[in-house]
Amino acid sequence: MTIVSAVAHPNIAFIKYWGNRDDALRLPANGSISMNLAGLETRTTVEFDPQRAEDEFTLQGVLQEGAPARRVSDHLNLLRNKAGLAWKARIVSANNFPTGAGIASSASAFAALTAAAAAALGLKLSERELSILARRGSGSACRSVPDGFVEWTSANRDEESFARSFAAPDYWALADLIAILDDNPKKIGSAEGNRLARNSPLQAARVADTPRRLDLCRRAILARDFPALASIIEEDTRLMHAVMLTSSPALLYLEPDTLRLMRLIPRWRDQGLPVAYTIDAGPNVHCLCPQDSAAEVERRLRETPGVLNILHARPGAGAEVIPAQAGD
Ligand code: DP6
């Protein structure tokens, strides 16, 4: 029996992944850039047991069946095949943030699962190999494997599409204040949404323009240029949501309270407060700002109708094996 635990943070994409060139392999249509989110985390323990008949997956203390359990077992099969072992496992996973509400719980989930399972199976993998495997479980999970500010390259081959860090977590003291407007799980998840992206007539234009946006975003981060970062991440958010709104069936993740913040935040910036929005596949609004502006951003968010809660995150490390959390 071998038991290993790992921790991983979700990440917030500044340049979004949306749509695949290969759905089964999760080879993305375009490259993306993200920041890992310390303060939010998934802890996962994997216990392989040669005597066990089936995998058993518990999330937030609830035994999972159906699609979520199959997705975890399918992912473990990739790692079991690599290790040449057929052992089944007990998997216990917990997030310290709402699951499935546009806060990329699948990213931290599959990054932590990959790191824990690889170690438990005795696989000695490089960060690049871990990132490739995590990507197969959930695309954005490959970006939660390396540290800090990360770029995931698109490629036609499995072994060429992985994420790597281009700046450490302490490179830029940013904060992400996540305005929770609705914490119910979304009805259409990212896996389904990613399959619909190619239906939108706007997707080809979004993908073709990606090198420009990646370049602007990477430069803004490396120069710690907040106005440049604000402008490119807000543009990228609107481009992705334009694709979502024009796929068939259409995906409308933005709620009236989301739109209110999309109007207010640039206004706050015009008034001299450095803050910018980015929004994933859900209604919640990630408000990026320098850490020394976070208190004022939070004060304004608290006064804004519809904001139920505010989660705090800052640039975080990559996935890590931690001492086994026996009895989880
Ligand atoms: C909107 O990585 O959750 O958050 O690969 O199917 O699991 P699957 O999708 P997922 O998609 C995330 C999309 C996004 C943008 C991003 O994180 O880049």
Salient structural properties:
single chain, six-stranded mixed beta sheet, eight-stranded antiparallel beta sheet, globular, alpha+beta, 9 helices, binds ligand DP6, 328 residues
The fraction of residues assigned to DSSP E strands is: 15-25%
Q: Count every helix, treating DSSP H or I runs of 4 or more residues as helices.
A: 9
Helical percentage: 25-40%
Give the names of the bound compounds. Answer: ligand DP6
Structural class: alpha+beta
| Uncertain stretches of 5 or more adjacent residues | none
Order of helices and strands: EEEEEEEEHEHHEEEHHHHHEEHEE
Question: What is the approximate shape?
Answer: globular
What's the pLDDT, averaged over the residues?
95
Distance between the termini: 16 Å
Q: Give the strand tally.
A: 16
Rg, please? 19 Å
Main beta sheet strand tally, sense and closure: 8 strands, antiparallel
Question: Care to describe what's here?
Answer:
- By secondary structure, the chain is α+β, with helices and mostly antiparallel strands.
- It is 35% helix and 25% strand.
- The protein is built from nine helices and 16 strands.
- Helix 1 runs parallel beside helix 2 (105-120) and helix 6 packs antiparallel against helix 7.
- The model has no long low-confidence stretch (mean pLDDT 95).
- Bound molecules: ligand DP6.
